[in-house]
C-alpha cells in the first residue's frame, strides 16, 4: 500500500525520489529486508551475473523507495526490461510451490509489473470512457457533484476537478489517477465463478497463517497496529490492513443460517462488495444447510407453505391467456426463484423474512393469485376439481388449505375423504384400467 502511495506521489511529481527524508532509517531497513526476500524469490544471489540487470528492472516502481532514475526518464529499453522481468516473474511463479506465501507475493509482483508496463506503453493517453483492468469494466463518471471516496487511495473524489471511474461489475470507484494502481481483480467474476457463500462462521486461522500480512494486498500488519493495524473480516475470518478493510458493516450469511443472527459485522471492502453482489442470488438451500431452522423460525414455515402454493398456482397461469396478459407472475419478478422452486433462498429473502416484510408481500400476492383462479377467471375455475371420493361440496383447488393432492395424477380431494380412503386414488385406478385395456388391444377397448 505504502508502495502504491509513493508511486502515486512519484507519478504526480510530488515526491523526489532522491530526497530522503529524515527518520527514514527504519524504512530503509524494511526495504532492505524486502530486497533480500525478493532476491531469494527470484533465485538470485548477489554473485549471479543476472542480478544487476533484474535488480534494476524490479526497481521500476516496485521497491519501497528505490526509484533509481530521474523522473520522466523512461526509455524504450525500460519496456524491454519490464517485459523481461515479467517473463522472469512468471517463471518464478511456476517454480514456487502452489499456494505458498512466496508464490502469492510473486503474483502480486507480477500484477504490479504488468500495470507498470501498461502505463509505460500509453503514458499520455487522454482519459478514455471505458477502461478494462483486472476484469473490471471501468466507465468514466459524468457526475460532478457527488462526493465519493476512492476505493484505491481512500481519499475523497472531487468530481468538479477530478476524473473518476466506476466499475459496472462491482461498483469499485476510483480516481482516474489511481486506475493503474489497482491490484484487486473485479469481484463480479468471483460471483459468477464461485457463487457460493462461506458458510462457516468467521473461519479464523490466525495472523501467523497469513504471515502477518494483509490477506489482500500483502501489506505487513499486526494486532498491535505496528506497522499497521490488522482488522478482521467477519465473513472470511482473515485479517486485512486499513486500506483493504474500512470497517464496513454487513450481514453475514453463515451467522444467519446457523444462528438466525442478523447483526451486521465488520467486513473487508472486498467481502462487502461480494456480499452486496450476492445478496439477491438464491444460493441457499436451507433444507440442506440447516433443516432445524424450520423448527425454530415460525415465519420460515409460513413462507415455505406460501411458496409451495404459488408453485401449485403456476400451471394455471402459464396456460391462462388472461393471466398472461395481466402479467400476474410478474408480481414475483424480483424473486424469480419463487416461481421456479420452493427450496432456494437468497440472503435478501431471509433478511426480509426476519423483518416481516416477505410474509406480508407474499400473502398479498398469494391472495391476488387465488382470487384470479377461484373468482375472476372462468377458464381457471373450470380447471378445479370435484372430490371424487365424496362427490360433494365446492370445487377444489390444489392450493386450498383443506385438500390433499394425489402425488401420481395430481387429482384433488378433501383432506378428510382422502385419508379415510387412503388406499387408492379413484382417478389413478381409472387411468390404469384404461391402460390395461389399451394393452389388450383395440377390440377389447371397444367392448369396454
Ligand atoms: Zn484515488
Ligand atoms: Zn469490478
Ligand atoms: Zn491490504
Ligand atoms: Zn385464468
Ligand atoms: Zn370429499
Ligand atoms: Zn391419482
Automatic annotation (TrEMBL):
Coiled-coil segments: none
Classification via Gene3D superfamilies: 3.30.60.20
GO molecular function: zinc ion binding
Family matches, as PROSITE patterns: ZF_DAG_PE_1, ZF_DAG_PE_2
Cross-referenced InterPro entries: C1-like_sf, DEF8, DEF8_C1, Multihaem_cyt_sf, PKC_DAG/PE, RH_dom
Presence of the UniProt keyword Flavoprotein in the record: no
One GO biological process term: lysosome localization
Keyword set, alphabetical order: Metal-binding, Repeat, Zinc, Zinc-finger
Source organism superkingdom: Eukaryota
Record Pfam families: C1_1 (PF00130), RH_dom (PF13901)
Entry keyword annotation includes Oxidoreductase: no
Task of the protein: Positively regulates lysosome peripheral distribution and ruffled border formation in osteoclasts. Involved in bone resorption.
Assigned protein family: Belongs to the DEF8 family.
Protein name: Differentially expressed in FDCP 8 homolog
Organism: Chrysemys picta bellii
Amino acid at each position: 500500500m505504502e508502495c502504491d502511495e509513493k508511486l502515486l506521489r512519484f507519478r504526480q511529481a510530488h515526491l523526489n525520489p532522491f530526497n530522503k527524508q529524515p527518520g527514514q532509517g527504519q524504512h530503509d531497513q524494511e526495504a532492505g529486508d524486502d530486497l533480500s526476500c525478493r532476491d531469494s524469490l527470484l533465485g538470485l544471489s548477489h554473485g549471479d551475473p543476472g542480478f544487476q540487470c533484474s535488480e534494476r528492472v524490479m526497481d521500476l516502481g516496485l521497491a519501497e523507495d528505490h526509484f533509481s532514475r530521474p523522473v520522466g526518464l523512461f526509455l524504450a529499453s525500460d519496456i524491454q526490461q519490464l517485459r523481461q522481468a515479467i517473463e522472469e516473474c512468471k517463471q518464478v511463479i511456476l517454480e514456487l510451490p502452489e499456494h505458498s506465501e512466496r508464490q502469492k507475493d510473486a503474483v502480486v509482483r507480477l500484477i504490479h509489473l504488468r500495470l507498470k508496463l501498461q502505463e509505460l506503453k500509453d503514458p499520455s493517453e487522454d482519459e478514455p470512457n471505458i477502461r478494462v483492468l483486472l476484469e473490471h469494466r471501468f466507465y468514466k463518471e459524468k457526475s460532478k457533484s457527488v462526493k465519493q471516496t476512492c476505493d484505491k487511495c481512500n481519499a475523497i473524489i472531487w468530481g468538479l476537478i477530478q476524473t473518476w471511474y466506476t466499475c459496472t461489475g462491482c461498483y469499485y470507484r476510483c480516481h482516474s489517477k489511481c486506475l493503474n494502481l489497482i491490484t484487486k481483480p473485479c469481484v463480479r467474476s468471483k460471483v459468477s465463478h464461485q457463487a457460493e457463500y462461506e458458510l462457516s462462521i468467521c473461519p479464523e486461522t490466525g495472523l501467523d497463517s497469513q504471515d502477518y500480512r494483509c490477506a489482500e494486498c500483502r501489506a505487513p500488519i499486526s494486532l498491535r497496529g505496528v506497522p499497521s493495524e490488522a482488522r478482521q473480516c467477519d465473513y472470511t475470518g482473515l485479517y486485512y490492513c486499513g486500506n483493504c478493510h474500512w470497517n464496513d458493516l454487513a450481514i453475514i450469511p453463515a451467522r444467519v443460517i446457523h444462528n438466525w443472527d442478523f447483526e451486521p459485522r465488520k467486513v473487508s471492502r472486498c467481502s462487502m462488495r461480494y456480499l452486496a453482489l450476492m445478496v439477491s442470488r438464491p444460493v441457499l438451500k436451507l433444507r440442506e444447510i440447516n433443516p432445524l431452522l424450520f423448527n425454530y423460525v415460525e415465519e420460515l414455515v409460513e413462507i415455505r407453505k406460501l411458496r409451495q402454493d404459488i408453485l401449485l398456482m403456476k400451471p394455471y397461469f402459464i396456460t391462462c391467456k388472461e393471466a398472461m396478459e395481466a402479467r400476474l407472475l410478474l408480481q414475483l419478478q424480483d424473486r424469480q426463484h419463487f416461481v421456479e422452486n420452493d427450496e432456494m433462498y437468497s440472503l435478501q429473502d431471509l433478511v426480509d423474512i426476519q423483518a416481516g416484510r416477505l410474509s406480508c408481500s407474499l400473502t398479498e400476492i398469494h391472495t391476488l393469485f387465488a382470487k384470479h383462479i377461484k373468482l375472476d377467471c372462468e377458464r381457471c375455475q373450470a380447471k378445479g376439481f370435484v372430490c371424487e371420493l365424496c362427490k360433494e361440496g365446492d370445487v377444489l383447488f390444489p392450493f386450498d388449505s383443506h385438500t390433499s393432492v394425489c402425488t401420481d395424477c395430481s387429482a384433488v380431494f378433501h383432506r378428510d375423504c382422502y385419508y379415510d380412503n387412503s388406499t387408492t386414488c379413484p382417478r389413478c385406478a381409472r387411468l390404469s384400467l384404461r391402460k390395461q385395456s389399451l394393452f389388450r388391444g383395440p377390440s377389447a377397448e371397444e367392448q369396454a
